[in-house]
Amino acid sequence: MADYQRVVEFLRDIRQAPLQGVTEEIRVAATDYAKLCEEANDRLRKVSAFLQQGLRSEAIHLSDETPNLLDLVAALDLPDPQVWAEFCANNGLPVPPPLQMDRASQLNEAYAADQPLEHLLSQHRLLALARGPVRERLSLMRQIASVDPNPTWEKDIRVFEKARIRELPAAFYSAVRTKDNAAIAELHHEINETQWYETLPADIQQAVSDAFSRVTRAQVESDLQALVEPLRDAFAARSQKECHALVQRWKNIMSTAGVTSVSHALSDEIKPVISWLNEEEQRLTKIKRFDAACRDFATLLEQDAPDAKLEAGLVKLKEFDDEIPGDLLQRYQERRKQREVASARRHKLTMVTIGGVVVLLAGGLLGGFYMYSQANAAKTWADKIRKATQDRNLALVQQLIDQQDKTAPNLSGDAAIKTAKSEAAALLAEYERDRGVLTGIVADLDSAAKAAQSSVTDANASVDDLLNIAGTLQGAIDKATAAGDLSWVDGEKKLPTALAGVHQLLGQARSRVAGQIQTQIAGLSERVDEAVKLPSDQAYGPLTTLGNTLRAMKDAPGIDESAKSALAAMDQKVAARLAAIQSTREMAGEMQNIRSAVVSSDDLKKALQQFTAKFPDAPQTAEFNEAIKRLNGAKAIEAWRDVQISLNGKFVPATSAVAAKRVEQLTAYLTTYADSPLSPALTTYADYLKRATEGLAERNTWQDKLADLLAAPTVSEISYMEVSDGSTYLVMGDIKKIERKINNQVSVSFQALNLKDLAKRVTITVDAPKTLKTATPVKLPHAKFANLISDEIKTVDENNWDTYGIDLADRIVKDDTMDIVVRAILLQQVLKVNQAVAGWAIGDAYDKTLLDLTRQQVDALPWYDKDRVTDSTRKAIKSIFDNMPSGASIKQKLATAKADLFKQVSFDVIATGVLLKDDLGNWQLHARGGDVQGAVAWTVAPPVAPATHNALVPIGSYSNGKLTLRDSLPRDLPQGSMVFVTR
Is the pLDDT of residue 41 over 70? Predict the structure, then answer.
């Protein structure tokens, strides 16, 4: 059994029988009991303070210390504590302070509220150990925060919200890519139906909202489509009931989903039905109103309403433009005739009635006089009783009532007398009620005075004891004051007497408190002077404790104004020092927030803005404001990282569709972030993708640009016929070959091209002994080559669409089987197409070759007539071929340009950070990760004319796990600049 239980059990045992005297054992028990009550009250005060600050867990932890506080209070709560207090006061024993049961009740409620919290905390611990998903842990912490008022949960929730915000883009992209509508709906609910401390990025909010709207609208239109056929059938049958039900379902589906518009096809289905329903409803409403008007008119006829009402009812019926029922009109006309007849009869009766009235008036005057005298007597009695009631003169009230009952009992039934007697009865009830209140208040005052007497006169009474007594006395006085004026029921003046005694004791208690308070104030003043001189890191704790003590004393009841002023002055001194320490701490905390806010530009912007808002005069603020302006460029870098996720690190598109989609993405990005530091590289990449879109199309660039040339008959069909004497003739199409035999001699004729005019033909005859070496036309080498190329360009793919032309140019130059002039013509066209395909990378590599070919006017040379093309021209073309850059060098140039472009476009960010200066003014980069050998740190700088886009500026690199900043950083580089670390 605990010590406190033994004390309480002893007190309960000795009070079972009448006490004969005070023994030493009783004195020890009384002292221990009073001390236990003080300790319990002290713990209850601390627990209550924790609860008021929302620190329920701390309050319960303090309560659970041995002995358990609620168990202790329950044991100390005697059945009749007031009796024991009086016994102690009368026998010189320590009087126990009243237990603070209201605070114990608050603690009990806190225990009850903490039970569901314990289950949530258990789940929280399990998820933390299992490293559960951020989303689940965040949801659970929000549930805990809703149950536990401890403000520290907000900080944890903010940390997890930032982590969840980083996950949202990937989660959203995955849901969209897999067409997971349920996941999109969950993301929409999480973003829009949950209270966030951190600000969600507007772009992800908008993207999720747009996707959810599309999903919702698609589902709504699917549900509505299922109603179309039933709606058509119901409308065709003109079934108002079915149409109304289906339209209502249609509206419910849209309103439930929050969709306000649907496709034109669905809208066209519902509009005529709604229009018809509205017309039907108006028609039926009009019929109902007309029927109601008919019923109302019939009622007027039945009630024999006046002519004016009947006329108004008839006018109302005529307003409907419907035929009025014949029976109603007939009844109306008959009623009119009856009234005309009755009017004539009434006129006759009127004249007879006037004579009778004159006779009756004489007899009525006598009876009226008697009634008037009785009413006047009743009013007199009622006024007397009411006057005595208003004066609160109960004796007179009763006397008047008795007299009236005795002398004029016949007036008791009068309404005025009844009302006066009722008011008198209410006054009597009020008297009895106030008399009871008076008795209770006087008893409470006497009891408080008796309980306070011994403590007020006890030289050893503590300040807390005296303050508790003062509080009890003041409470009794306040209760008496709140009861109002009771003097009309207090003839013996008991209340003023009791109040005087309590006021006297209250004055004595406060006087003793003031004396002891002055002593404590002197000691506190010395402690305050010592605490404010301590270093900041040592002063905060003692100053906080002193501040709480000073405020508690200042607000305690019974403290006089001079003491309050002294305490307030010390409190201000403590508060000023604490404010200075807190300001330093807050600035350090905000700087730490900035160092930690390197996950995204939004986080960094928020941290910088919080600092500048709190410390507008700090030396860093101007630079931070400039850094905030530059964060738009950083935002563009982050946005491009999001686009990169969809590229999966593959910058060469596999198909024309992929290339076209990427062009759309880049166009949207460059429209939104026109000043992006990456805009030059991305503009070039967009140009590359547009060329890839055409180069990989179903009918690609090579097919489109070379089609006419390769399909020309002089290129793809031209052939030759050779004679045994070595002569050759160019032919195309049907040569109309004819053989003739004369005396065993064969003569052959055919049509060849007229080299002076290829549109014409000449007949060639081969007579014996000459013969044809080629029985049929043989295609020229360049025709065979053209046919081969026509087939090849159909198979161009992602592996060679931009190098095919380079290889083809090399092949044309090296193929000596073809006529050199034809080769020059083909080469000229291929190089032009090649510029359209890869000109972005190879630049002017082929410009000289194209210029030289143009000067030779190769496309105008009659290559088919060798006599008309000079040797010097052929030598010049040969020289052009010899001086053309090799295909290998051009392909290397293309590969280098692509590699450089893709490296710029990839901008492989492995870490982000922020640039700040230390106390000595030296630059420091605060980053998460990035310590990779050779990694480069970049920051965004504003545009430099004439450029309109931001610039990326390298500021350092990593070597051996350490970042080395460049010696000469830009002079206008502000603190707070965001940094990107790339491989």
Answer: yes
